[in-house]
Amino acid sequence: MKSQDSLVVLKEAMQSFAKERDWDQFHSPKNLSMALAGEAAELLDCFRWLTEAESSKLDANQFQAVEEELADVLLFTVRLADKLNIDLLSAAQAKIAKNGMNYPVEKVKGSSKKYTEYK
Amino acid sequence: MKSQDSLVVLKEAMQSFAKERDWDQFHSPKNLSMALAGEAAELLDCFRWLTEAESSKLDANQFQAVEEELADVLLFTVRLADKLNIDLLSAAQAKIAKNGMNYPVEKVKGSSKKYTEYK
Amino acid sequence: MKSQDSLVVLKEAMQSFAKERDWDQFHSPKNLSMALAGEAAELLDCFRWLTEAESSKLDANQFQAVEEELADVLLFTVRLADKLNIDLLSAAQAKIAKNGMNYPVEKVKGSSKKYTEYK
Amino acid sequence: MKSQDSLVVLKEAMQSFAKERDWDQFHSPKNLSMALAGEAAELLDCFRWLTEAESSKLDANQFQAVEEELADVLLFTVRLADKLNIDLLSAAQAKIAKNGMNYPVEKVKGSSKKYTEYK
What we know:
The structure is a homotetramer.
Chain A: H1 6-21, H2 29-47, H3 52-55, H4 60-83, H5 88-102, H6 105-108
Helix pairs in contact in A: 1-4, 2-4
């Protein structure tokens, strides 16, 4: 059943949340992009002084902080997409396909160079 | 069928994408948090000089740019969650519940004040 | 006297601060870029639900928050530049000159379009 | 002479730049915070797939990119401060003093824990 898809469930939950609080008035795409970027940056704070190795082995407090920030990022992503009538699954699949063309396996295997450096 | 859920579909697509290119070595949680925040900030660029009203009425070029950046944000969110074994749907639902307690309807209706200002 | 220039004063203050705490070990350019972006995003939090007009008329609490976040941004900017031996004043003046060529007055006056749209 | 201080030189250069282009209308503090965070995030892009060690040994192309992004961050920092009549040097020095109290040498030496973990 379509409505049980994760992204649909979250979209509807966010709609209810905003409606109950009369917050639609604040949820312009511009404002939501700021909220999203703000939450994404809080993730940076979780990792900024950890080594890469440490970032894979979080303790319970660190893990909970990351989990909550990542949840906020997803919620604002879903909310912003909803406000602009963007189908997130289709958009994400189309972007993977585009990335696949920009980073062809035979050229980038094992390398992290940005694709503009290959052209 | 569980594996048709959007978030599962995207998780598996990102796993394949990285595996084909031997990119797992670059995908530490620390690095992924940087990629995620970088993509979220590119959304800001789409909106920075628009008014709130304009941000709801994007032209075709603007819309495509926003759609692609939002897709990138979702893809890195999914990828980072996968690397840390975070169940995004559960995490997001738990966060909505927590937000509901921090922003009780009767206190915040129609107001955008941060919840710390209510305490 | 050169050493009284603001950027030099702050560079030296940050050097002392890190040295006293033995924090140089954490201040790789990669980590500092995360700290800088994290602080810049905290500024977004100050403004995300304000209208543009409101953002020009902050109350005392809001003003203090913005002042502190902006200070953090400047401090990490100075610190990152120092670690990479970048002369911030020269770099900023060169960038203004470059921006001037990308956004010639006669083409962009009164318009906020990104310069790539003019080409 | 006060007007030769780096931060004053850059403030005045940014004022002229905006005035010539009639861009003051776009430079609300809200919009400038988005521009600043956007530029700070472009720095992340320079470093996201580099190791910490690599981030200290940039090649010429990488160095130029970092230098330009860092310049943009400084320019928008100066511009936002100007719009809100914030004295950046005073604000930064006050913040260093505050940070010094939050991170007393005897408690944090050699450790990167966030100060809230000490309390």
